[in-house]
Amino acid sequence: MKIKINGMDIEVRHADTILEAALRNGIDVPNLCYDPDLAPNGSCRMCICEVNGRLMTACNTFVEENMVVETESERVVSSRKMNIELLLARADERSNDKLLELKEKYGVDCSRFSLADENARKDESSLSVVRDSSKCILCGKCVNKCQQTQNVNAICFRGRGSDLRVGTAFDVLLDDTVCVDCGQCVLACPSGALSERDDILKVRAVIKDPLKHVVVQTAPAIRASIGEEFGMAAGTLVTKKLVGCLKTIGFDTVFDTDFGADLTIVEESREFIERITCTGVLPLFTSCCPAWVKYVELFYPEFIDNLSSCKSPHQMEGAMAKSYYAEKKGIKRENIVVVSIMPCTAKKYECSRPELSVDGCADVDFVLTTREIARFMKQEGVDLNDACECEYDDPLGESSGAGTIFGATGGVMEAALRTAYEEVTGSGVTDFEFNQIRGLSGIKEGEIIMKGKTYYFAVVHGLFNAGKLMEMLKGGKKCKYHFIEVMACPGGCIGGGGQPRPTDDEIRKKRIEALYDEDRMQQFRKSHENPSIKKIYEEFLCKPLSEKSYMLLHTKYSRRKIG
Question: CB 472: neighbour CB atoms within 10 A?
Answer without folding.
Answer: 12
